Amino acid sequence: MINAGGKKYRKKRLNFSPYLYIGPHLILFTIFFLIPTLYGIYISFTNWDLIGNPEFVGFSNYTEILFNKDSTFYEQLRVGLGNTFKFVLFTVPACIIVPLLLAAGLNTKPRGFKFFQVLFYMPTLFSVSAVMIIFSMLFSVSFGPINHYLNVETNWLATQPYAWITLVVVTVWWTIGANLIIYLAALNGVSKDIYEAASIDGANSIQKFFRITLPSIRAQILYTLVITTIAQFNVYGQPLMLTKGGPASSTSVLLMYIQENAFGSGNSIAGIGSAMAVILGLCIMVVSAIQFIFLRQRD
Amino acid sequence: MEKKTVSKFVSIIFISIMALIWVIPLLYTFFSSFKSEADIQSNAFTLLPINWVIDNYQDVLFKNTSAPVAKWFMNSLTISVSHTVLVLVIVSLAGYGYSRMKFKGRNAIFAFLMASMMFPAVVNLIPLYKIIDTLGWVNNFLAAIVPGSAAVFNIFLVRQFMQGIPIDFDESARVDGASDFQIFTKLILPLIKPVLTVVALFTFTGSWNDFLWPTIAFNDIEKMPITPGLQLLQGMYALDIGHALTGALIAILPTFILYLFTQKYFMESLSLSSGVKG
């Protein structure tokens, strides 16, 4: 308990008491973020099975996964990182463009605006495992309503390119909510007079979209682009539960291999897993930085 | 005028088609959960159940000992509520410290915290497990309650909000003889309720839906939360539409209901976080 004491005591307390406020978080931050992060980098330079003591091996984990073409881990990194990049490349544009179009349409405040807003945002609040169960049933070959109503026999989850298409569709359905709300809020701030004036000058809706709508929410597009990209790099649950990483590892993403190596059924190869995690982390940082620099420059 | 109606018409059509795509999976899940086994066999492709039964719910919640959904649900509830309370205490204290107190290294520490947000979390995953293991928290609720409270973003939000409260308030309270702690609890906490509500909603939702970490930290069926539990359930009911979808529906119910009552907060905080009104 902090109580008001004499003058001398008070002065001393003033120097110490702030740390009582920031201390609890700083302790948690140190134990559960700082130490594991630094340790994570360290063990990527070691041989470790999660149980014994890590044995320092220098760069050999990295040379193994980056350059040793005969190693399974080299193959895992190539496939996993490649598929993660593919996933980012396929989903990020869709997760920006779809909510942009929806926001442009909803910006005219049609009847039922509130309902639409609630509906499109809602899936964001569901867990990945629940959403994947729903879609694995919807896209099932024999008893899925999608095949039935499209009158096809497509094996969505186990043949390409359908597995990728399904993953993208599901991810868009699940994750565009936040971006949509951000765009809508931004468009709300754009004065309607500008649109009116453009109409008088004879601009059509497509011109208005490209000349007024897009430029006025550039900052939000940049923000959502960076946030969405980081989120999609961490893809794990969708391919794990929907396509099981298949067909033939074509949708196995890097986080699946990291998890498998460190915590899978066999012996733990935490050192290799950690090196993979560091590489994934570096990719995320580099890509975010590029986006940032590239888009800031054009301002 | 002619042009205007055409474009409005096009956008209504577009939004309606999209809305259908968004609503069908939800309706499909909802109605399938009330179908009987025979119903699903004979009319797999009609949306509405012929007769509404709650067998799926009884089976999934209580009858399957290898996928005890009711237990998972309660585990998740305990974890998410505890985690949310812990986060609220931690971030309001820290927010107060960083926004209203002067001390050596304040800005440096805060800048360091902000910079840490740029660092990809994936790197600490494996050692975090080791820490949990050392603490004896594997298969313990604490594994899902405590580590997440190290996050920085909420402190940033709370600090932002507190900076909008004039420092004169504190000064005049101090003149009246209030201690720091009294100022914090009696004056500041009531004023920051809006931002704490937002933090609570997003923290609860995030905790409820967390997937990767709980699959690592829990392998005991009795102890796990519902989100990793559903992965087991999916394997068990791979060909059983009714039961699998009922499990999914039970898992999304709490956040769904929460959102219906508090959507205003979700919407406002999203627009704020992207700097629309900033």
UniProtKB/TrEMBL annotation, chain A:
CDD domains: TM_PBP2. It is found in: Cell membrane. One of its GO terms (biological process) is transmembrane transport. Pfam families: BPD_transp_1 (PF00528). It is a multi-pass membrane protein. The keyword Transmembrane helix applies. The chain crosses the membrane at residues 20-45, 87-106, 118-142, 162-186, 217-236, 269-295. Keywords: Cell membrane, Membrane, Transmembrane, Transmembrane helix, Transport. PROSITE patterns: ABC_TM1 (PS50928). Residues 81-291 form the ABC transmembrane type-1 domain. Belongs to the binding-protein-dependent transport system permease family. This is Sugar ABC transporter permease. It comes from Paenibacillus azoreducens.
UniProtKB/TrEMBL annotation, chain B:
Keywords: Cell membrane, Membrane, Transmembrane, Transmembrane helix, Transport. InterPro entries: MetI-like, MetI-like_sf. The keyword Membrane applies. GO terms for cellular component: plasma membrane. It is a multi-pass membrane protein. It is found in: Cell membrane. GO terms for biological process: transmembrane transport. The chain crosses the membrane at residues 12-31, 72-96, 108-129, 141-162, 183-204, 241-261. Pfam families: BPD_transp_1 (PF00528). The keyword Membrane applies. Residues 73-262 form the ABC transmembrane type-1 domain. Belongs to the binding-protein-dependent transport system permease family. This is ABC transporter.
